[in-house]
Design goal:
CATH superfamily: Aldolase class I
Number of domains: 1
Protein name: DUF934 domain-containing protein
Structural class: alpha/beta
Organism: Ramlibacter pallidus
Radius of gyration: 14 Å
Distance between the termini: 21 Å
CATH topology: TIM Barrel
InterPro entries: UCP030820 (IPR008318)
Order of helices and strands: EEEHEHEH
Helix content: 10-25%
CATH architecture: Alpha-Beta Barrel
Shape: globular
Strand content: 15-25%
Number of helices: 3
Pfam families: DUF934 (PF06073)
């Protein structure tokens, strides 16, 4: 599940090396040396480039640190964010974290593999 951070409660952390990746940046070409967290921006909910960036970072680059969604983060996108590799998300202003957690209770398993569990359901032990 994604760590959900209410709007206004995301604080800078000491000794955490953060890379803020622009939407048009190639996730396959950026240096990840010493990076603890990558922040990917959703400038508006209809812009899904950050989903692709997260998946590339997790699956192709093998990035094991925190991938955080920022910007226009809506509750109904959180499950897909998790499946593409996000590990934390800063909710849009006015969104209730309890509503966000209920999304994950609704969708407990998926038939297809994803960035978190690459095997499809039928191949899992």
């Amino acid at each position: 599940m994604i760590t959900i951070i209410p709007a206004g409660q995301a604080q800078p952390e000491e000794n955490v090396n953060v890379l803020v990746l622009a939407n048009d940046a190639d996730a396959l070409e950026v240096s990840l040396d010493g990076v603890d967290r990558v922040e990917l921006q959703f400038p508006k909910f209809t812009d899904g480039r950050a989903f692709t960036q997260a998946r590339l970072l997790r699956q192709r680059r093998g990035f094991a640190g925190d991938i955080r969604a920022t910007g226009d983060v809506l509750i109904d996108q959180l499950v897909q964010m998790y499946r593409t590799g996000f590990s934390s998300a800063v909710l849009k202003e006015g969104k209730d974290p309890a509503d966000a957690e209920r999304q994950f209770a609704r969708y407990r398993a998926f038939y297809q593999g994803d960035a978190v569990v690459p095997q499809p359901l039928f191949a899992r032990g």
